Amino acid sequence: MTQATKITGGVLAAVVLVVWPWLTDDRFLHHVGVLIMLTAIGASSLHLIIRTGHVSLCHAAFMAFGAYGSVLTVMSLGLPFPVGLLVGTGAAALLAATIGPIVLRLTGKYFVLITFLFGEVVRMAIVENVALTGGSNGIFNVPPPHPIFLDTKAYYYLALAFAAFAVGLCARILGSEFGRAMNAIRDGERLAECSGVPVIRFKVIVFIIACALAGMQGSLMAHYNKVLSPENFSGIISLNLVVMNVIGGMSSLWGALIGAVFMVMLPELLRGYVNIQHIIFGAILFATMAFMPGGIIQAARHVKAMLSAKPDAPAPPLARTGAAE
Amino acid sequence: MSFDVMKSLRTGLIGSVFLAASSFATLAQETLKIGGLGPLSGGGTSWGLAAQRGMDLAISDLNAAGGITAGGKTYKLELVFYDDLYSAQGGKAAAERLVHQDKIKYIVGPVGSPPALAAISVTNPAKVIALTNGYAPGVLKNDAPDPYNFRLYNTNLEFGPPIIKWIRENLKDVKKIALLAPNDAVGQAVAKPLAEDYKKEGFEVILDFFERGTKEFTPLILRMMAQKVDAFEFDGNSPGDAGLMLKQIRQAGFRGKVFQIGGPAVDEIIEIAGPASEGFMTYDFVDWDMPKAKALREAYQAKYGKGIISPFMPAFYHGVYLMAEAIKRADSIETDKVRTAMEKIDGFDIGIYGPVKWIGKETYGVNRQLMMQYFFSEVKGGKIVKIKKFTP
C-alpha cells in the first residue's frame, strides 16, 4: 500500500466517522457508536500488552480504577470532569506502575493466572468497600462530563476524540523504534535482552500506558452509563477484550479495532432474536476462531493476496505473526 | 346476463365487502408496542423468562378481550422483549433500543437494580413510562427532574418492618437471628436494611455474607449455631441457594425457626429442600387461591408446562395490566396523560393481588412505589399455609 493510498484511506475513514451520526436520527445507533469508540480504547490498549507477548486478564480492573477514581473525584470532591478523568487515568497508571514490575516477570500461563486473580481481588475490594464504592449496588446518578453530553450524539464525538487519541497513541508506539523492540520482546525475550533491549523496563512502560488508557475508558464509560457497579469490571469484561484481539487478529492494531466493532455490534444486532441470540453468537465466534485462526484481519489479507496474486503463484500463509503495524 | 356473469358479479361484490371490512378493521385497530426488559442470559435467566412469559400472557389476554381503547382507537398490543444481561450496560443498551429504535413509550422491567438504574436514565428523559423492579432506593430516588418511572411491587423497605414486628409479637422464643446473604448487589441491598429492621425491634442479629456461587454452607451454618442463634434468615438469596441452605441447616441439626423475609419463591425452595422445608416461614405476595390467579396459573401451565412458577411471572403480568388500565383511563397514548392516570390508579384490582396503591413519599420523595397485599406463610405438610395477611 502506497503512502498516498494510506493517507486517502485514513482521511476517508475520518470523514465517515465524523459524518455518519448526521445521516441518521436513530439514537440507538449513536449509542452503539459510543460503545464501539469506548471499547476500541480498551481493545487497542490491551493490544499493546499483547504485543509484548502477554495476555492480561485484569484490564477491567484498571478500567475500574479509572471509573471509580473519576466518579468519586467528581461526585465526592465536587471537582470538574476533566480533573476526574485525569485522577482516574492517573490512578490506573499508578496501580500499573506498582504491580507491573512484579507481575511482568511472569510469562505465559502464570501471567494469565496472576492477572486473572488480581482482577478478582480488585473486584472484591470494590464489593467489600461499601462506604467508598457503594459495594455491589455501585454508584448511581453519575453526572455526564457536561450537560451537553446528555445527548448521545454529542457523547459519540467525545468518545471518538478519546478513541482517536488512544488508537493514535498505540499506532505511534507500535510504528516506532520502541514498537519494534516490543515485537522483538514478544518473539524472543532472551534474544531481545541479549540485543540490548531493557526488557522489563520496556514491558512496564507499555503496561503503564495501556492501563492508563484502560482507566481513561473506564472513566468515560462510567460518566456515559450514569451507573457504576462492580459487575462492569468482572473477569468476563477482561476476557471479552482478549477475544476482540483474537477475533480481529493479534498481529495488528487493526485486528483489535475490527474485533471491537465485531464484538460490540454482533450482540446488538442479535438482541432481537431473544431465544436464539446466544446460540447464534456462540456459533459465529466459534466459526470465526476455527476458520480464521489469524483473525479477521489475516483472513482479509489472505483474500486480498489471493485476488492480486498471479494464477500460478502460491497463496500466502493464513496466519502470519510478527507484523509491525 | 348469463348465470356465470351473475356469479362473478356476486363473488366480486362479496369480495369487495370483505376487503372493505378488513381494511376498516385494519384502520380501526392499530398496534401499540409494549417493551419488556429482563435477564434472558446468565444467572438471572429464570427471572427474565418469567417476566417475559407473564407479559406475553397478559398481552394475549388483553388482545383476546379486544385490545385496549384510547382516544377513539382500539389498539392491539405487541410485546418487544430484550435481554438486559442483568447489568447496567446491558440495561442501558436494551432501553436505548426499545426507546429510540423501536419507538416504544411503555416499558415493564428491568428486574434488577443495576439494569433498572441504567434504563431509567434513558427512559425518563425520553418521557417513556417504565414500571421497573430493582430494590435499590435510587430507582425511585433518582436525579430525573420530572420522572416517568414507577416501581412494580413491594420492596423489603415496605414489607420488612411489619413482618418483623409480627415475628416479635408472635414468636417470642426468637431473640437472636443469623442473617446469611450473598455478597452481591441483591444481598447488600436487602440484608443490611433487614438487619437494621430486626435490630429496631430488639433482636440481636449476626449478619454474614458469602460469595454468590457457594454451594456448601455447612461451615457457615455450624459457626452460627455455635453462637446459639434462635433463627436463621436468608433474604437476598436465590431460590436455589435458599433451598440448599434450608436443607443443610436441618441436616446440621438446627431445629429452630428459619425465615426468608423477601424473595418470594417458596415453591422452588420446597422442591429443593424437600421434607427439610417443613416449618419454613417466608414472605409471599401471590395468593394462588384467588380465582384470577388460579386461572393465570392454569393458562401458564397450559402454555409453558407444569414447572414451578416464579413470582416475577404474575408481577409482570400485573404490570402490563397496570399500563393498559392507565392508558384506558387517560383515554390517550400520550405518556404525560398516561402518567397522570397511572398516579391515580389506587384501588385497581385485577384479582391477583387485591387492590393496589402508590406509596413512597416519605421513603423516596415520590409516591411511585406500588404497594400490594402480602403474606407471611409457613410450610406445613409440604403445603404453603398463609398465617398472616398484610394489606396496604
Reading off the top of the CATH hierarchy, the class of chain A is best stated as: Mainly Alpha
Largest interface: A-B, 33 and 35 residues
Beta-strand fraction estimate of chain A: under 5%
Q: Please report the distance between the alpha carbons of the first and last residues of chain A.
A: 12 Å
* Strand-residue proportion of chain B: 15-25%
Q: Can you tell me the CATH topology of chain A?
A: ABC transporter involved in vitamin B12 uptake, BtuC
Tell how many strands the DSSP assignment of chain A holds.
2
Domain count of chain A: 1
Largest sheet of chain B: 7 strands, mixed
Under the CATH scheme, the architecture of the largest domain in chain B is 3-Layer(aba) Sandwich
N-to-C CA distance of chain B: 75 Å
Helix content of chain B: 40-55%
Major β-sheet strand ordering of chain A: 1-2
Order of helices and strands of chain A: HHHHHHEHHHHEHHHH
Class of the largest domain in chain B, according to the CATH hierarchy?
A: Alpha Beta
Low-confidence stretches of chain A: 318-325
> What is the radius of gyration of chain B computed over CA atoms, rounded to a whole number of angstroms?
24 Å
Protein architecture, described:
- The complex is a heterodimer of chains A (325) and B (392).
- The two termini of chain A are 12 Å apart.
- In chain A, helix 2 (27-50) packs antiparallel against helix 10, helix 2 (27-50) crosses helix 11 (235-248) and helix 3 (59-75) packs parallel to helix 5.
- Chain A has one domain: ABC transporter involved in vitamin B12 uptake, BtuC, CATH 1.10.3470.
- Chain A has a two-stranded antiparallel sheet.
- Chain A is 72% helix and 1% strand.
- Residues 318-325 of chain A have low confidence and may be disordered.
- Chain A has 14 helices and 2 strands, in the order H-H-H-H-H-H-E-H-H-H-H-E-H-H-H-H.
- Helix content of chain B is 45%, strand content 20%.
- Residues 21-27 of chain B have low confidence and may be disordered.
- Chain B folds into 2 domains: 29-154 and 289-355, Rossmann fold (3-Layer(aba) Sandwich), CATH 3.40.50.2300; 157-284 and 376-390, Response regulator (Rossmann fold, 3-Layer(aba) Sandwich), CATH 3.40.50.
- Chain B starts with a helix and ends with a strand.
- With 392 residues, chain B is of the alpha/beta class.
- In chain B, the strands form 3 sheets. Chain B has a 7-stranded mixed β-sheet. In chain B, strands 2-3-1-4-5-6 form a 6-stranded mixed β-sheet, with helices on both faces.
- Chain B contains 13 helices and 15 strands.
- Chain B has helices spanning 3-28, 45-64, 88-101, 113-123, 156-170, 185-200, 218-226, 239-251, 266-273, 291-304, 312-330, 335-343, 361-364, and strands spanning 29-38, 68-70, 73-83, 106-108, 129-132, 149-151, 176-182, 204-210, 231-233, 257-260, 281-284, 357-359, 369-371, 374-380, 383-390.
- Chain A binds chain B through residues 26-29, 31-32, 35, 127-128, 130, 135-138, 140-141, 150, 152, 221, 225-229, 231-232, 268, 271-272, 274-275, 277-278, and chain B through 40-41, 52, 81-83, 86-89, 92-94, 96-97, 99-101, 113-114, 117-118, 121, 125, 136, 138, 142-143, 183-189.
